[in-house]
Amino acid sequence: MSLLFFMQTCASAGGFLSLAEATEGAAQELRVKGTAHGITLKLVEKIGAENVILGEPVLDIDQGEQAGCVVRTTKGTELRCKRVIVALPPNMKSKINFCRPRLPVLCRHYNSHNVLSQMIKIIVTYPKAFWRDQNISGEIFGETTFSDLTLEQPEISSPNPEASANGDSSPPNLQSEPYRLQQDDLKYVVFDFSIKDGDTLIPALLFLIGGQPAVRCSQVPEETLKRCLLQHLACVLGKEVEKPIDFAMKDWQEEPWNDCGPVLFASSGALLNFGMPYSKPFGRVHWAGTETATRW
Asked: Is the pLDDT of residue 241 over 60?
């Protein structure tokens, strides 16, 4: 990660603690009432469901016509408009063909110098907020190990040299043998994620697992991950934490429309060499989204 990018992100939020904490005015303080998907439903109500096209990824954005832009989808749909707003992370912008004119060189280089983040998000719901009864905030930075876990994974055995010498070109045998995760440390963050539905409190804890631990956890069966995380958290919050009424896990690495966690981060030299090319419109194309924001 670029140090300049990290410092810029912290400055946009008023400091590192404002990004990490769930205190008043910090980044983790506020919740979306209901669900985040409720925002899109409200937008659909405003613009009309007939104006929303689903299941048709954009293939081309053509600014070559004097009247405006032509947007083409993978299913052959053509949409003509005066202007286009692209609200995508840099890695997904690279999958769109910007033609007449081509995407500026600074934008193309900036896209290739953004690194995908890895994130697993888990929301665990409980019948009551027992941690609050103990005057515990629910904000925890935890670390545990997975050294005792084994996973069933097929391994390719080395070719038989005698068979190769005899001209046997058959593929090597596949052997299903357990293997151990190569790195033991698992680091995670927990926040009190309780929300109110009217006068009713819905108690919940939010787990965030990022970086290489998220990559390793993506190989672990969900039930195994659930057991290990809750058993470890029980050392802090007590045995009640092992009795949730719901365990919902979202592996952002499997999300097809961004391929990664909630954000990307610029690699070393990206900002220094290419600046912030998405801070200004590209002809009739306007940019929006996390990576174009200057304030948290």
From this structure: yes
